[in-house]
Structures are given as structure tokens and as C-alpha cells.
Amino acid sequence: LFDLAEAAPGASLIYPYELPALPYAPDTLDAAIDAETMGIHHGRHHQGYTTKLNAALEDKPDLQGRPLLELLQDVSVLPEDVRVAVLNNGGGYLNHALFWPMMRPDGGGTPTGPLADAIARDFGSFAAIKEQFTDAALGVFGSGRSWLGRNTEGTLHIVQTPEQDPVHAFGFVPVLGVDVWEHAYYLRYQNRRADYLDRWWDVVDWEQAARNLTA
User: Fold this and answer.
1) What is d(CA 107, CA 121) in angstroms, rounded to the nearest whole number?
2) DSSP state of 204
3) Residue 107 and residue 209 in contact, taking contact as beta carbons nearer than 8 Å
4) What is the Cβ-side half-sphere exposure of residue 58, based on CA atoms within 13 angstroms?
5) N or C: less crowded end of the chain, CB within 10 Å?
6) Structural contact between residues 168 and 74, judged by C-beta atoms closer than 8 angstroms
7) What is the pLDDT of residues 108-124, one digit of tens each?
């Protein structure tokens, strides 16, 4: 398991869960995402996952003290009556808490240091990983995410996850990820997911991604 406090500052580690604040004003990612979309995405969608996750665990004191990452590692062992709710809402809470810090108003550019070295080692070049990552995000059927993830051997891979499934349950530490649910981009881009992704690279926080690499 990775260090959630490092990868998602402000996120709750255990029940009761609270909506983490955005690390920037909602209108400051306008190079890629408009303020209205950010406000709805954070204040309604992420808040909704937070509220429903707390409701699912309200009568489960044996689960309340377990870290969210542990609950999501293998939901098949959870009580059947809350299994789907924890996966959907716990995954939604976690994925959004990770997503916000992966962006910043003065982001974009290219990675440097150990992250750039790891990308060159595992993909050959930044151009190659950008193309493969974008293709993976475009190829997500319906709703989900595309991730740059690190496996237990330290190798970087591009991973697609459906719906709100957490990438760490597939054996990967989330280094960078993009949300391709329609509510993440539809107000500005309608069905033009490719345009959203093209602009999204302009707000990527490579410093956070570098921290996630070793989280």
C-alpha cells in the first residue's frame, strides 16, 4: 500500500470521511477545465461519494477503524451488504482525492529527475508515454480512468481502470491519473474527450507525480 497522506493531502485515512479541499481555486485550471465543471465535480460528485461512503459504514464499527486503502484492497472479503457501496463510493472518494493534487494551475511541461529517468527506462521517451497514456484514456469504455502506475518491482505501466475501481487493488501505486468520466469534461468539451485530454496535459503537476513515484 502507498502513503495516502503524501499522495492525497487532506484526504481522510479512516472513517468518518471528509471532503478534502481543492489545493487551488476552482477557476485556476481554466487552461484545461472550467470553473463550473470543477465546482460540480468536487462539490457534488466527490462530496456525494464521501457522503455515501460514510453512510455505508455507519453501522459497521468493525470496518470504521480500518484504513480505506485496506478496505479497497480486496472488497470480496467485505460483508456482502456493503461490498458494492464501499467499492463504488470508497473508490470514488479515493480516486478523486488522488486526482486533484495531480493538477495545478502552473502545471504542464515535462517531468524531470527520477521520474523522467523512470519514464525513459520503461517507455523510451516522454513523447511515447504521453501518446500511450492518452490512447489508454481515449480507449476507456464508458467511465473510468487512465493511470501511470508503479508495480512492486518499481516498473512503470499504463493501466486502465473501470468506473471507480482503485488502481492499487490491481497491484499498482498511482503515479499519475486522469479522470475520463463525462462529468469531468462534458460541460466544455461535450463528447470531445480527445480535446479534454490534449488540454489536460497543460495542468499536470509533475512534482506531485514525482512524489507519488516513491510514495
Assistant:
1) 23
2) B
3) no
4) 7
5) N
6) no
7) 999 999 999 999 999 99
Count the residues in the chain. Answer: 215
Grid cell 479515493 is found at 94
Q: Give the span between the Cα atoms of 22 and 100, in whole angstroms.
A: 7
Query: How far, in Å, CA of 168 to CA of 141, rounded?
Result: 20
Give the C-alpha separation, 176 to 148, whole Å. Answer: 5
DSSP for 40-71, written as a single string: HIIIIIIHHHHHHHHHHHTT-HHHHTS-HHHH
CA 136, CA 116: separation in Å to the nearest integer? 20
Closest CA to 91 of 21, 130, 147, 134: 147
**Global model pTM greater than 0.85:** yes
Cell 471532503: give the residue.
19
The answer to whether the CB of 172 falls within 8 A of the CB of 73 is no
Q: What are phi and psi of 48, to 5 degrees?
A: -65, -45
